[in-house]
């Protein structure tokens, strides 16, 4: 690792004279480590969350309630990425926003570490807010390290940054999950706080290597806009306080009074955002057509994430109660399953990229639409696979761990087909007016998918039942086939985008 951070022996001020990180600007090391530690804390806590919620030594909730809480939490993280980006653009600037976000996340994990159920949900809220603020702004700072979109190092820089995400996600369940499950749940949450604290410290120490633009507020609020924004925020906050005070004092309060509105927002807001953009009369005919095509991708992605993100809830809870979590007689913590996806991503992503290049040279690379449809079909197949361990458990036996490994493997293959394509098509099809907002719109597909899962759980649907799993699997496969069957129509709507 020491050789990756070098100083070229040339005169100061000449190109390449600055310290580099794998041949990239030194600031990438700061952002790489910040994201790695943030993901370490996020995925470590997330691996423990559903297990803690259902554990007798935890909150001892039903699987349905735990799945609902988990789904609401994940949907909020992605939903809050849009206001997080707004804060970076209009209030604090990206650098200050990320520093504050890291502090909020650390405080959230420390709150989770307190052995009291009353503070637990406040901790979840703080982590969700902090993650939303950080997620939108740290990627912006990565882009600012390079000299425009034509810098040949730019794509490679984001690839290195992406490795930081997966390194943190891989290590987190092995460390935080093991301590949380084997020693003490709250100690596990405290370790997540330590991880985020390390990320904040090194970010503050290394921020001098970031581009100067990261400290600039691109479009600061005017005095009038500040007053208007504060009034609106105060109004909605007061309304929520009054509403929940009435519900609480009347003796009708249950957890659903919080979870149901949040899940409904997770479905309604994405629909409203897409409808607002689609109805914008300032968009020209070509942009309107591309948005019509994009809605196909968005809905399909929501179906994908609805199933995929159950890998951390439905599958994890099933593994806890009904799987033989051992290899060759060696038992391992349930949370370790959450390390399978990131290690597969790191292993398979270069292979998939090489395959696309090889097919492209032969003129046989599948189109964006075919890749997207294939990703959907694969996530559906993963849930058809899930029917096997469900059947084994239904017969009174423990399902082998390899069944779950196989499910995560197929889901990861689907993710590699759909997620990079979704990110790419989002940037290519974004109307010029909404260029900076469309990445947030893409994240809303995750919000919509997870919110749908949360709603199903809240209204009594058992997501680990054979019929429901089969129905979800069929829905994904049918959606993938529909995208493929209508590929010519979607391609026409996409115009010159391929």
From TrEMBL:
It is found in: Cell membrane; Membrane. The chain crosses the membrane at residues 43-62, 68-86, 120-138, 159-179, 185-205, 233-251, 257-277, 289-308, 336-357, 369-388, 400-418, 439-461, 467-486. Residues 1-14 have a biased composition (Polar residues). It is a multi-pass membrane protein. Its main location: membrane. One of its GO terms (cellular component) is plasma membrane. Residues 1-21 are annotated as: Disordered. The keyword Transport applies. One of its GO terms (molecular function) is dipeptide transmembrane transporter activity. It holds the Pfam family PTR2. The keyword Secreted does not apply. InterPro entries: Dipep/tripep_permease, MFS_trans_sf, MFS_Transporters, POT_fam, PTR2_symporter_CS. It comes from the Bacteria. Belongs to the major facilitator superfamily. Proton-dependent oligopeptide transporter (POT/PTR) (TC 2.A.17) family. This is MFS transporter. It comes from Streptomyces tagetis. The lineage of its organism: Bacteria, Bacillati, Actinomycetota, Actinomycetes, Kitasatosporales.
